[in-house]
TrEMBL record:
Belongs to the sodium:galactoside symporter (TC 2.A.2) family. This is Sugar transporter. The keyword Transport applies. The chain crosses the membrane at residues 20-39, 51-75, 87-107, 113-134, 155-177, 189-208, 240-260, 272-293, 329-352, 381-400, 412-436. The keyword Nucleus does not apply. GO terms for cellular component: plasma membrane. It is found in: Cell inner membrane. GO terms for biological process: carbohydrate transport; sodium ion transport. PANTHER family: MAJOR FACILITATOR SUPERFAMILY DOMAIN-CONTAINING PROTEIN (PTHR11328), SULFOQUINOVOSE IMPORTER-RELATED (PTHR11328:SF43). It is a multi-pass membrane protein. Keywords: Cell inner membrane, Cell membrane, Membrane, Sugar transport, Symport, Transmembrane, Transmembrane helix, Transport.
Length: 474
């Protein structure tokens, strides 16, 4: 590959795109087992009230929101960057404790409720800390891989494809593995978590070996990164702020849907095994959507495709609430909604590198770590709310584990899985539609101006060097 080629036209190999996608496949294998099943493990195996599970998610996710900020500070503070790059070493080394803690979270114990809650909270916080080091580095690496906006969109599609496959495998495969241990369900949870975490670890190492950082830039000495600057990076970068608000809504909606679907299939549709089939078809629809993202972006632009995905998502949820009482219709309308999420979730990652370039254009300082972790801060706050609300709402609607639920509880489950995500998707659409102004034409202008500035700076430096040499000669 020609390193001297125009950065805006440089093409990545299929092998490298695949390796990058495997990174989110692996990280989602380790993340989604917690997103999908940890609350149910707390309530059904550890005997915790759903409220306790919600509080654990809230506390731990708020903690990891700030660890994301610390990761950004750490990344932007790096000065002596070796041949492995600025971001890749964190993918290699942090993935090991992520896998260990992801497994440990599913270890049953007979301690008191207070001790169980404390252990679960600490483990979840540790998972968030190491996951921040691994995943924030993985995401912030995109601007260092390529400057080509089309290639960035493709990397985002490969990333979302990997994430979708990871989510699909967790949705379809976790409970069947767990059910192999019918005599000891707690042991089944632990074995399934161990299996998925090990596979996730191997995929992260695949990503480390397969990607290349071509445009590594060291943050200037006079710019000292800090958590405050990472936080302020959101508010000084209007496109990033709008994206954070929209993502706050979409991620909360998506995670609420994932957390409640296991309860919905078991108690509303009376068929928990339907979860695997629903996951297979709906995640398959997400994969189809992911493959369509690059072509749709080329034809319509990122913003229009993003809004189209939100429209499909909200429509699918409304139809499911009205007519999704049978297994067939539930799967059908869920496929429509998840197909829409493919465009939204893919473009969330494709838009972030654009805001990095916008920040450099506006301030003259390139800080991938601060921008990316400022963005992931909003995602973790969203995840905190998405973990907290289902636990609180399950308590409010009168959920009791492993028993026949009342009509009020069943209605509450339907509202939680459909109406809440639909409302949040509509808010995200309004936010992006009215306030996101960084379109393709403006982005091309920004990249061109940044290149012009750098060329002028290099010419000025060369001129100054020549003048100094002439002065010495004289």
């Amino acid at each position: 590959m020609n390193r001297n080629a125009d950065p805006l036209t440089l093409k990545l190999s299929l092998r490298e795109k695949c390796a990058y996608g495997m990174g989110d496949f692996g990280s989602n294998l380790m993340l989604c087992i917690g997103t999908l099943y940890l609350l149910k493990f707390y309530t059904d195996e550890l005997g915790m009230p759903a409220f306790y599970g919600g509080v654990i998610f809230l506390v731990a996710k708020f903690f990891t929101a700030f660890t994301d900020m610390l990761t950004g500070v750490l990344l932007d503070s790096r000065r002596n960057i070796g041949e492995n790059g600025k971001f890749r070493p964190f993918i290699l080394y942090a993935s090991v404790p992520v896998a260990l803690v992801a497994t440990a979270q599913f270890m049953a114990n007979d301690f008191s409720l207070t001790v169980k809650t404390a252990i679960a909270t600490v483990l979840f916080m540790m998972f968030g800390l190491f996951y921040s080091l691994m995943n924030c580095s993985y995401g912030a690496m995109v601007p260092a891989i390529t400057k080509n906006p089309d290639e960035r969109a493709q990397l985002a599609a490969w990333r979302q494809g990997g994430a979708t496959l990871g989510l699909l495998l967790c949705t379809v495969g976790f409970m069947p593995v767990q059910s192999l241990f019918n005599a000891n369900p707690s042991q089944g949870y632990f074995f399934a978590a161990l299996l998925f975490a090990l596979c996730g670890l191997l995929c992260m190492w695949w990503c480390y070996n397969g990607v290349q950082e071509r445009y590594v830039e060291v943050t200037p000495e006079h710019h000292k990164p800090s958590m405050i600057k990472s936080f302020c990076a959101i508010f000084r970068n209007p496109p990033l702020l709008v994206l954070c608000i929209a993502n706050l809504c979409t991620l909360a909606a998506f995670n609420i849907k994932l957390a409640i679907q296991v309860y919905y299939t078991q108690y509303v549709l009376n068929d928990i095994h339907l979860l695997s089939w629903m996951g297979f078809f709906s995640m398959g629809c997400i994969l189809i959507g992911v493959f369509l993202v690059p072509g749709a972006v080329k034809r319509f632009g990122k913003k229009q495709v993003y809004l189209g995905g939100l429209t499909l998502w909200a429509t699918g949820d409304v139809l499911n609430f009205l007519w999704g009482s049978s297994s067939l219709m539930f799967v059908f309308f869920s496929c429509m909604a998840f197909f829409g999420t493919a465009f939204v979730n893919s473009l969330n990652w494709a838009l972030v590198p654009d805001t990095v370039d916008y920040g450099e254009w506006k301030t003259g300082i390139r800080t991938e770590g601060s921008v990316y972790t400022g963005y992931t801060f909003s995602r973790k706050i969203s995840a905190a709310l998405a973990g907290f609300l289902p636990g609180i709402m399950l308590t409010q609607i009168g959920y009791v584990p492993n028993t026949l639920q009342s009509a009020t509880t069943l209605l509450g489950l339907r509202q939680l899985i459909f109406l809440w995500p639909c409302g949040l998707a509509i808010i995200a659409a309004l936010t992006m539609g009215f306030f996101y102004k960084l379109n393709e034409k403006r982005f091309a202008f920004i990249i061109e101006e940044i290149s012009t500035r750098k060329n002028k700076s290099c010419q000025q430096s060369a001129t100054n060097t020549e003048n100094k040499a002439s002065a010495v000669t004289l």
